[in-house]
Write a structure and sequence with these properties.
Elements (H helix, E strand, L loop, with lengths): L2 E11 L6 E8 L4 E8 H11 L9 H11 L3 E11 L2 E9 L4 E7 H11 L3 E4 H7 L1 E2 L8 H13 L8 H13 L3 H17 L1
Parallel strand pairs: 4-7
Antiparallel strand pairs: 1-2, 1-7, 2-3, 3-8, 4-5, 5-6
Amino acid sequence: MNKLRLEIIGMSYSQSQSGAYAIILGEQEGKRRLPIIIGSFEAQAIAIEIEKIKTPRPLTHDLFKSFAEAFHIEIKEVIINKFSEGVFFAVLVCSDGHTEREVDSRTSDAIALALRFNCPIYTYEHIMVAAGIIMDEETPDSTSQEIREESLEIRDDDLTTFTITELQRLLKKAVEGEEYEKASRIRDEISKRKRET
């Protein structure tokens, strides 16, 4: 199964879910984005490493790296290998120089560790198809659709009343507005409908 290389595009605070963030991963050679909702602790761990901020004492992910290095274990790559019911799953591909093993991990922790070990992050095509967001998607304009888009602000918890085409427009608008948590809810509704057909 071919792997797709991902890179971190950005991170934003969730407007509707207290203490949650969305980290955005993008294809290295493509226009699709993968928004993943993560907790504040993991968001902080990722941001600290991206910004190269030195903390007075090691944080959990830094401790893990020090522990692994002390025993000559390296993380070679991170693979986001499953997407089920709106949840992403990942594995760390670890090696001690002789044996290579996959270790189950929360996706947010896997990303935080990938940054510390300077290793690549991958996913598979079927996950990008199920959960990815295409940035350059062109959809014809329509006044009625624009009115319905505005109403999403009032009733964004009820996405079932929108058509697939309208959901795709809403998804594009949410991504352009960097409302990644909303985009992930819309994406999940689109995925659910595609599974039902």
